[in-house]
Amino acid sequence: MEEVVKKPKHKSPSTIRCRKAHSLRQKLERKKNRPAINQRSVKLAQLTELYGLPPETKFLFFKKGQTTPTRIHFGTVVCLDEDTSELLLVARFVERTPTNLALFERYNHAISTVYHHAKARGIVKTNGAAKKVKAHLRKYGKMHAAGFRPGYDHIAKAGPYAFNATTSGQLWRMQEDLERQGNLPAIEDFYAERFAGLSSYAFNSNAELASRVGVPSWAGESFYVSPNAQVFASNIAVTYDEFYNAKHTDLDESKYTFGFFTRINRHTGKLYSLRNDPFQGDSNGSQFFLDNYNVTVDFDACDGVVEMLWASQTDHHTSNSKTFNKNNVRVIPARGSITRFGCACQINKRLVERIQEVNNMRGDLCDDSRKKLVRLAEKKGIDDFALVFP
What's 178's domain CATH number? Predict the structure, then answer.
């Protein structure tokens, strides 16, 4: 049987000319819309100045809803919305080298202190994004917080995160934490320095909000007396032991959140390096996702510290990790020596609302009412009496 060969469809000369002209117009239009090299350089320079970004930053632009995945795993990278140029995320991968040993000493001191300071307080059980995965997936993962939080009853409108039962049950544990508290102002300065170094725009956004509302510092002991001039966060959340959560936006008043992510010794809180330290185990698989932009920050790619800020009202989540012991056998987190430390500094939205409520009420109080507040505060054991209602 002979094979039937289809004849090509006849196209008139005018059709061929029109299609060629259409293709040429499309190419010219694309070329016209594509910014010239020098125009792109000007735009990046403008964005660097606007957001106060570090030099030698790699710029990545993403469309919301894009399907092509992007993995961020080295250097200093800034992610922006392609249509609006909105700042979405800045990540800096800092590896230990002979030239930055002093910096890593500061990391070591700050991270281990914050880790133990937060662990001296109760486990956070009200985190909605973590609760979403707890019912059917979550086995491990812990979050603690330090600093100030909104109150949970009609008397106290706000207050510090309290000691957990283990800490409050032994005097020496409380004394240890008070010593750590004395180190927090200097550590807060270090956090502020690294935060502003990623983006002075994002840092100033948080600091201006804190100043305008009267937000207390996460490193302070008193609500109204902050140890530093520029407060940029009211609380700090610390995660470890294979913590992960679901896609969410943060219930924060601040537009940006800042934190460190690194491997640490689970018992001491000190930094752990796969390359530089004797092998004690590992924690791997931890990643941060910007869900609407299909962007992944791979924490495992860094043997040092990842510094990161992100837009808190953009959907994001962290993935679960796996813990391995010194024999490289997977174990539950409590039986491992190494865990993935993460922290996040932010200004809580509900706390800001409570502060505004109190400020509105305070303006209408006479002297007798204020005296009643003082007596009520003393009765309830509240130091900052202006944060209560009669």
Answer: 3.60.130
Q: Examine residue 80 and state whether it is found in any structural domain, yes or no.
A: no
For 218-248, the pLDDT digits (tens) are: 998 766 556 556 799 999 999 999 999 999 9
CA distance linking residue 309 with residue 202, whole number of Å: 8
Instruction: Please give the span between the terminal C-alpha atoms of the chain, in angstroms, as a whole number.
Output: 100
Cβ-Cβ contacts under 8 Å for 56 (sequence gap 6 or more) = 76
Q: Poorest-confidence range of 49-63, 204-218, 362-376?
A: 362-376
**For residue 333, pLDDT beyond 70:** yes
Residue 277 CB-density burial (10 A; 0-12 exposed, 13-18 middle, 19+ buried): middle
Q: Does a structural domain hold residue 21?
A: no
Shortest CA distance to 347 belongs to which of 163, 121, 177, 158?
Answer: 158
| CA proximity to 339, closest of 66, 144, 176, 106 | 144
Residue 309 in 3-state DSSP? strand
Domain count, the chain: 1
Question: Can you give the pLDDT at residue 324?
Answer: 98
pLDDT in tens, 150-170: 866 555 567 788 999 999 999
CA distance 353 to 337: 41
Whether 360 maps to a domain, the answer reads: no
Domain range for residue 333?
92-354
> What is the pLDDT, as a whole number, of residue 376?
63
| Residue 337, domain member (yes or no) | yes
